[in-house]
Design a protein that fits this description.
2 copies of one chain form a homodimer. With 396 residues, chain A is an alpha/beta fold. Chain A is 41% helix and 12% strand. The model of chain A has no long low-confidence stretch (mean pLDDT 96). Chains A and B meet through helix 1, helix 3, helix 4, helix 6 and helix 7 of A and helix 1, helix 3, helix 4, helix 6 and helix 7 of B.
Chain lengths: 396, 396
Amino acid sequence: MVVEKFRQMLSNKSVIREISVAAVARGKEIGYDNMFDYSLGNPSVPVPDRFNEVVKQLLDTMDPLTLHGYSESHGIAEVRDKVAESLEKRFGLPYKRDNIFMTSGAAGAMAHAVRAVCNIGSEVLTFAPYFPEYNHYINETGAVLKVVPADTTSFQINFEEFEKMLNPKTEAVLINTPNNPSGIVYSTETIKKMSDILTKKSEEFGHEIYIISDEPYREIVFTGVDAPVVSQFYDNTIICYSFSKSLSLPGERIGYVAVSPNCKDAETIIHMCTQISRGIGHNCPSSLIQLAVAEMLYDTADLSVYETNMNLLYDELTRLGFEVVKPGGTFYIFPKALEEDANEFCKKALKYDLALVPGDSFGCPGFFRIAYCVKTDKVERSLEAFRKLAKEYGRQ
Amino acid sequence: MVVEKFRQMLSNKSVIREISVAAVARGKEIGYDNMFDYSLGNPSVPVPDRFNEVVKQLLDTMDPLTLHGYSESHGIAEVRDKVAESLEKRFGLPYKRDNIFMTSGAAGAMAHAVRAVCNIGSEVLTFAPYFPEYNHYINETGAVLKVVPADTTSFQINFEEFEKMLNPKTEAVLINTPNNPSGIVYSTETIKKMSDILTKKSEEFGHEIYIISDEPYREIVFTGVDAPVVSQFYDNTIICYSFSKSLSLPGERIGYVAVSPNCKDAETIIHMCTQISRGIGHNCPSSLIQLAVAEMLYDTADLSVYETNMNLLYDELTRLGFEVVKPGGTFYIFPKALEEDANEFCKKALKYDLALVPGDSFGCPGFFRIAYCVKTDKVERSLEAFRKLAKEYGRQ
């Protein structure tokens, strides 16, 4: 008998996936280039050429038994050293090898981090709007995800609700800044206030509350935006990082856990990750890919296109009277729909070959997500479609 | 508070790892080339050159956004097609794309397969001697690993004990042939008899009992050895494969789940794997590595050295009066120690710079494992050390 829980999950279709499938199908009719497919968060700029050169150089120069050989279960020591060094330089905190555990992307990082610091039955708080996969990432560990309702005026943190929901079962707070789907970056004020509350509550409850900071969009921050380093404000911070967006390498599944050097259990947590791996079956990411990204820690793909796209969309949507908070990073924007039911709104959008994702699954009904990781030319051409859509609602 | 269960695991040292560390330390004193380090199952022959050429060709010819882009969570469709085709050709069973799920090595494959077909609290039977990591792989899924005692005369299956241990809670039987640590290949007679028993018991219990066939050593079978294809004998067979040993790519963490086309729930199980991935955090292996191995499905590293090494060791150990079953494959041999406590025996061996692993952790006290994935020259030089060790026990 197959396990019923997972079999039943097959009938729960992902909304994002369904819209993406519809967009691709429509794209086959009208030419995909004419389909304004804003459904998926898939990078639209290529990896820097240098990455491929680095891979080739590794293949040409390294002993294949070392290059393709088993790595330590923490990840390759030299790679961890280099990641730590890059974080030290960037964050001004003394990260060392034993603060770093290499993983299969941010999903792999979270699978380890949550299992390391959240006991069975404990609660992990996150803030709407949030990436819906968090439900699976957290709940399958045995902890329970609880979602703090959004502050829909700013998409910063709704502190009133947050303080109400914090309780002795809270063992971690999961944040994602820059945020998918809102594009918002938490301000220094937000991070400070959150840290102060967590410090106070940790003392009150008599146990640590960790911040698990999911940072795949860390490198995509727009001009002039205040983007504080969470680890500088809160010692018990565990970064879950992925190179998917910064280097446009989502298929390579490469990332890391980085526990703040100021966290007293940092090394223990990193060593525990190697034990957690044994039970969930991914002992390490590819050695070739580990070694390659270690040479690319100060590079990114050309991420400037995302800011260009954001400005085009933000300006036009604002002009059309959409309520929309200006993103500080990522390749998402999250306006309020022009009718109460964002699902209906997104259905109407499809008539104009616009594939948009309703906010319900992100914990924010009434809003919709535009993933503008597409060519700028397509964004420009899509503005007319937004105008037609807005016109249905008497906006122009 | 870090999670106590994983923290406590840190103090349980792996015996294999400890011996390996001791061997490397001693190697630093006497030169590693003079240390007969038989502790780890790490391939000693390089990946075929063509693998690196294939990787470079992919980098040179494919659009980077496709090459390094998100793949479907089942794995890249074309890769799954090619894997299915290779299994169809080889096993004469109609494997198709939907029988295949790409994973991070065999550990990743087992993490999915067991979660798909074994309910919480169910039992998974395996046969001693067995790979000790199975305890983690299985028990962390919520199922419970039960070990059938060894038939130490042949290291085939102890059917009397097996039949006693089968019970309505048994939902899977985990086999590993060719076997780590014994090197034994289960004969056609063994596989037939096991399949007949499982078919009968499935009917009696009113639910499927799956065979989970861990096959990383499938390609390392010695001359003239009967190596039956398990899926040809039992419909509910799920293969967990890794390219680690066949292509000498352990660091690349690449493998797959292949459910027999004769299993009625095959496609459901494969789709379920994509749901399981979401909770354990490794959605896919590296896209570059997936695409590369898909071009190497009919290649292996030069595996002939392992048979050469086996024969040298088998002949000399037999001559010295060791009780030893001749391996049919892998790069392991599993003789009986010359005293009751194999731990003591292995300690004495270290005096002669021989790093051997006692059988206790493999569920077979009194035996020891030699992992002869080393250069043949080292095997030859080690024979004198074995002679000296045997002499301590009056053998020469």
